[in-house]
Amino acid sequence: MARQNLACDSEPNLRREQLLQAAALLFQKNGYQGATVRQIADATGLTSGSIFYYFKSKEDLLEEIISQAMKSGLQIVHEHLSTATGPLSRFQALALAHLTAIMGPLGSAHEVSFRDWKLLSPDARDRLRTVNQQYREVWMQVLNELKSNQYLLSDPERCRLYMLAALNWGPARKNLTESSQLASAANLFCSIALNLDEEEFHKLCAAEKSGDKPKDVD
To answer: What residues does the HTH tetR-type domain cover (predicted)?
Structure first.
């Protein structure tokens, strides 16, 4: 493939996205420190110098990859929560949204963000902290609602950390490809997280959606 110079490219936005996608895949496969600018250039058919037409440095690429993942994930979560009512339905929607995001088109970027966040400079982390905090607040709102309704007994902040770790790194999620599989995984996660049988969780959700008063959870 002939190498190109981005400065002469007629579709700069497309080239930028191609660079981000290639970098995300390479960072996921080789690690941020193991992937090189040369490898990213080779993956997109560009010269190494062309990359710096859009990104000042390799770290700028990493920051943009993580930024895209975080903003996309937050949008997906808001979309799922917009139609959910009640603490259990909202928890179910939140878990499904998180799985949908990390298993979607930006899955590689999400995995890079989980693993390589700490490799960003303090200034870069500060620039992304607002979105990161917004995502945390969504989780805390849902978990605090569960605790208020006695579905969650432990500290919500600690639960958030362990729950996200389970969702992000659970081996089972590697094989999730269909929407029905994602929904089943989300339901299983919710029932385990709340120490409920799956059937019981389904019944409580159904009662909540129908407006019936659910039975007390032991």
So the answer is: 13-73
